[in-house]
From TrEMBL:
InterPro entries attached to this UniProt entry: KH_dom-like_a/b, OsmC/Ohr_fam, OsmC/Ohrsf
Organism of origin: Actinokineospora auranticolor
Protein name as catalogued: Putative OsmC-like protein
Superkingdom classification of source: Bacteria
Gene3D superfamilies on file: 3.30.300.20
Length: 132
């Protein structure tokens, strides 16, 4: 089981820390110097795809890999309608057949192994426990 602890460290600012000592500052959307909670969700989805695809892409292209994540929702809405993930890599050294194969292999790997995107695609229970 993975646990991330968030603790208030300032006005509208929380520090999220994992058990390995890594931390990130989280705050309200638009606030300077912090990620918003939605931005962390987007980062988690994009990074999950990147980590899952990394070795497959590097073996075939030897090049870089970037994933952009964008929230899909009407302005001002407090719930996402979706998440768009744009995967960018340099496949210029591959022929059409090799590009198609890479796309297929990466897609299957992400669909099978990416915990974050798999979770976002299904109804997920969120339980809030109050420890007073």
């Amino acid at each position: 089981m993975t646990t991330v602890r968030t603790r208030r460290t300032g006005a509208h600012v929380f520090t999220a820390t994992n058990d390995r000592g890594a931390s990130v500052e989280v705050g309200r959307a638009g606030q300077d110097g912090v990620f918003s909670p939605v931005e962390l969700l987007l980062a988690a989805a994009a990074t999950c795809v990147g980590v899952t695809a990394e070795q497959l892409v590097l073996r075939r292209t030897g090049g870089g890999l970037a994933v952009d994540a964008t929230d899909v929702r009407p302005d001002g809405a407090h719930q996402l309608d979706g998440v768009r993930l744009d995967v960018e890599l340099d496949a210029s050294g591959l022929d059409d057949a090799a590009r198609a194969e890479l796309l297929d292999v990466v897609t299957r790997a992400v669909e099978a192994l990416c915990t974050v995107t798999r979770t976002l695609k299904q109804p997920t229970t969120v339980e809030t426990v109050h420890n007073w």
